[in-house]
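[Discussion] Sanity-checking designs against the backbone

I'm trying to build intuition for which residues belong where. Below is a structure token string of 147 positions. I'd appreciate it if someone posts a full sequence so I can compare it with mine line by line.
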């Protein structure tokens, strides 16, 4: 997670740190894209990075590390469309996959989680390879031994 041009409000340190679970999909407006909303209050970027897999509703599956350099807590609301709904047309029918014959599907007006991070919050996901701690179990005794 890196900062591009942060657009978030500084959080009130006297308030408790929290993020809502993504709200269930709902029509943003009649005929509009379906989407999720995540609201966070006084959340550090390290806390948010650890919650991204849950907040993205499955769009992000990799472990995320805070590399923003932003200190303190932040308040923000993020609106996005889950990746599965990005393939829907406005009338709710499944869109054709790329490379299939027939006409192109109408755009949904939705925004992916990654695009919403950058456009709404001014931060983005930057994929990098990093070492992570791993627990390796290389041997198990079939019969327990006495103490």
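Best answer:
Here's mine. Compare freely.
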């Amino acid at each position: 997670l890196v900062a591009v041009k942060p657009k978030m409000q500084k959080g009130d340190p006297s308030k408790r740190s929290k993020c809502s679970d993504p709200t269930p999909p709902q029509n943003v407006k009649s005929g509009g894209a379906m989407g999720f909303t995540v609201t966070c209050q006084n959340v550090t970027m390290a806390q948010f990075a650890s919650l991204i897999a849950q907040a993205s509703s499955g769009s992000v599956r990799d472990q995320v590390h805070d590399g923003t350099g932003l200190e303190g807590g932040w308040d923000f609301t993020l609106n996005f469309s889950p990746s599965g709904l990005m393939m829907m047309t406005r009338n709710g029918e499944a869109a054709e996959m790329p490379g299939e014959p027939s006409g192109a599907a109408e755009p949904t007006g939705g925004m992916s989680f990654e695009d919403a991070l950058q456009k709404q919050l001014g931060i983005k996901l930057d994929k990098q390879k990093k070492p992570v701690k791993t627990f390796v179990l290389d041997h198990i005794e079939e019969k327990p031994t006495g103490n």
